[in-house]
Fold this protein.
Amino acid sequence: MNKLRTVWWMAFYNLIAVPFLFVLFQLIAALLGRTRAGAKIKLGRQGRAHLFARLAQQMAAFPAGSPRFWVHAASMGECEQAKPILHEIGTRFPGSVRVLTVFSPSAYQNLSRQNLPAEVMCYLPIDTFTNARRFLELVNPAAGLVIRHDYWPNFMWQARRRGVFLLLADASVSANAATKRDWPGVRQFNREVLANFAVIAAVSATAAESLRPLLRSPERLRILGDTRYDQVLLRTQQAELSRILPGSWQGPPMKKCCCPPLWRRGGRCPA
């Protein structure tokens, strides 16, 4: 039943929603023309040109056995929230490859100024079935971390299909989404996409209560605070991180799984 429901939502999203949004985006871009917003759209298009060729070249520079993490932050604010997480990954897993993606042109333009600890930084490709599959094949992450609420359905579905452990960090419900989540089908669609996350780390108790109705498995919800302010993942969560991140990446795969229980649940162990 769950698999049939997922297939239905994937078909609806890719056959109806994505084409509609593409046409709408083209129309908006044409109407905005040379305005400031139109210039940002143009920058986003230019920045994504030849994205996969550049990404393939960058990823080829790292050893195939290197642990790889994908972190997605939509804009500059989310990049600040991602910074302590990226630092923690680098500390716990020396030699790891941290791939940071952004959606906003303004964030992309300021990546070099933000001193972000990531080996690869690029735009997130537009959320199509083919783009998501191609991106994940190139990056081949064992874990993916999305900041706040910029989770794109095709990337989440494809990541889970590949066995990528997904964590939603600094999770909250945007004011815009809060007003629309009771629209017909919206709550069900959000539940479908959020079901791909193994852990949802809410930014506050209030955010957790807003997220709870959107989750099929509330036990995956935790309150870990805002990494931008108190850097909670850096200072207090050793036991929590042991369940969220794999214990060891060194050496050949072991016959007996040595990953934490949360990774093994649902067949997500990367070993």
Summary: Residues 51-247+259-264 form a domain with the Rossmann fold fold (CATH 3.40.50.11720). The chain has one domain: 51-247+259-264. Strands lie at 68-72, 97-102, 120-123, 143-147, 165-171, 199-202, 221-223. The longest helix spans residues 2-32.
